[in-house]
């Protein structure tokens, strides 16, 4: 993968990767930005959640599980001595569907966490990550 980050002005940048989708990058006004773009650390967490979501949905589709709604709720705590660093990340997958097998959901989450999600593998080196799931009937 290749990416290009281009400075616009102040603390505003744009990023473009292989997808050719331009993403505005910035920081909050209180930290000197205009607040008009995605904060890079937020993007890292969204990447983790998105990677895991795609894995879980794909695995459940292959197991012919009828998912009607899927959401990842992610929370990250920052280090007290370095508030820009995440130390603990909790991820909860909320899966709704018809006749979902909780064991299949558990296995999909486990496979994403331990085998398929490269974002998880990278972030595990820097933070404690815990996952859980909840199955709800649709």
Describe this structure as you would to a colleague:
The structure is a single chain. The chain is of the alpha+beta class and 138 residues long. The chain folds into two domains: 1-38; 40-137, GMP Synthetase, Chain A, domain 3 (2-Layer Sandwich), CATH 3.30.300.20. The chain is 33% helix and 38% strand. It contains three helices and six strands. It has helices spanning 40-62, 102-116, 118-124, and strands spanning 3-9, 12-17, 22-25, 66-78, 86-98, 128-137. A three-stranded antiparallel beta sheet has the order 1-2-3, with no helix packed on it. The protein has a three-stranded mixed beta sheet with strand order 4-5-6, covered by helices on one side. A hairpin with a 7-residue loop joins strand 4 and strand 5 (86-98). The longest helix has 23 residues, at 40-62. It is elongated and about 50 Å long.
Our count of domains comes out at 2
Instruction: Label the structural class.
Output: alpha+beta
N-to-C series of helices and strands? EEEHEEHHE
Low-confidence stretches: none
CATH topology group of the largest domain: GMP Synthetase, Chain A, domain 3
What count of helical segments does DSSP give?
A: 3
* End-to-end distance: 38 Å
CATH architecture of the largest domain: 2-Layer Sandwich
Radius of gyration: 17 Å
Give the CATH class of the largest domain.
Answer: Alpha Beta
- The CATH homologous superfamily of the largest domain corresponds to K homology (KH) domain
Helix content: 25-40%
The shape is elongated
How many individual β-strands?
6
Mean pLDDT: 94
Question: Could you give a short account of the major beta sheet?
Answer: 3 strands, antiparallel
- Strand coverage percent: 35-45%
């Amino acid at each position: 993968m290749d990416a290009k980050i281009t400075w616009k002005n102040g603390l505003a940048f744009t990023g473009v990767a292989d997808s050719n989708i331009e993403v505005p990058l910035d920081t909050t006004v209180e930290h000197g930005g205009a607040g008009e773009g995605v904060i890079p650390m937020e993007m890292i967490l969204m990447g983790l959640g998105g990677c895991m979501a795609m894995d879980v949905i794909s695995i459940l589709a292959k197991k012919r599980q009828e998912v009607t709604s899927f959401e990842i709720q992610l929370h990250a705590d920052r280090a007290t001595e370095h508030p820009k660093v995440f130390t603990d990340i909790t991820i909860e997958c909320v899966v709704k569907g018809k006749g979902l097998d909780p064991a299949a959901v558990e296995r999909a989450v486990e496979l994403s966490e331990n085998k398929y999600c490269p974002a998880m593998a990278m972030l595990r080196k820097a933070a404690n990550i815990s996952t859980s799931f909840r199955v709800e009937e649709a």
